């Protein structure tokens, strides 16, 4: 008797555009006992290039009896709902869309429940979340590894903010956790004189 294991799988469309075998692979996975699939809307050769596509995911979902989650280019709550509607997927998997904006999940949940975005977090609330995150990285990984790992997160956070690129380069030259934290904290404090909201592309012209 076949036993279902609580083990998910994450296939892609196929190897390349001329070899899109997602429905076949997904059915094999289900027959082998995979509990759920998180499908990325690109081929293996695409890697992270181009745009994710979803039509084959919808076809695959219709053929399976296990949950299917859709992944790839989910960068806004609005797009998340549109993709769920297009694919009839059971859920979504967020990756790069949440880099530098952990509040994305708050906005996603509210939009799914109410059809509108919640009020934006204040600059002070975002700054506090960022500093707490960097402190946690330093505490968990230690000074040496923590500083290196925190650099990419800081870059994601401040990339679209005023003077963000200049500050990122400055912070990347620092080797001390204390100096990294203090420089970031100083930058966030100075931001208050330049803007009162955190940059967010999906809030522009949102309804």
From TrEMBL:
Coiled coil: none annotated. Residues 10-184 form the DUS-like FMN-binding domain. It comes from the Bacteria. Pfam families: Dus. Gene3D superfamilies: Aldolase class I, Putative flavin oxidoreducatase, domain 2. GO terms for molecular function: RNA binding; tRNA dihydrouridine synthase activity. This is tRNA-dihydrouridine synthase B.
């Amino acid at each position: 008797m076949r036993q279902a294991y609580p083990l998910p799988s994450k296939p892609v469309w196929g190897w390349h555009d001329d070899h899109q075998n997602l429905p076949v692979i997904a059915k094999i996975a289900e027959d082998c006992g995979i509990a759920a699939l998180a499908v990325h809307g690109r081929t293996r050769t695409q890697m992270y290039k181009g745009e994710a596509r979803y039509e084959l995911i919808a076809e695959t979902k219709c053929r399976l009896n296990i949950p299917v989650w859709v992944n790839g280019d989910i960068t806004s709550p609005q797009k998340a709902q549109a993709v769920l509607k297009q694919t009839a997927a059971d859920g979504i998997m967020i990756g790069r869309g949440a880099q530098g904006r952990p509040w994305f999940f708050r906005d996603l949940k509210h939009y799914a429940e109410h059809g509108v975005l919640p009020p934006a977090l204040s600059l002070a609330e975002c700054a506090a979340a960022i500093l707490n995150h960097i402190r946690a990285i330093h505490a968990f990984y230690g000074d040496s590894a923590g500083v290196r790992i925190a650099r990419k997160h800081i870059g994601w956070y401040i990339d679209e903010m005023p003077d963000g690129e200049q500050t990122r380069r400055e912070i990347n030259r620092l080797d001390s956790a204390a100096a990294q934290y203090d420089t970031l904290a100083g930058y966030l404090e100075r931001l208050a004189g330049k803007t009162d909201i955190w940059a967010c592309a999906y809030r522009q012209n949102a309804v």
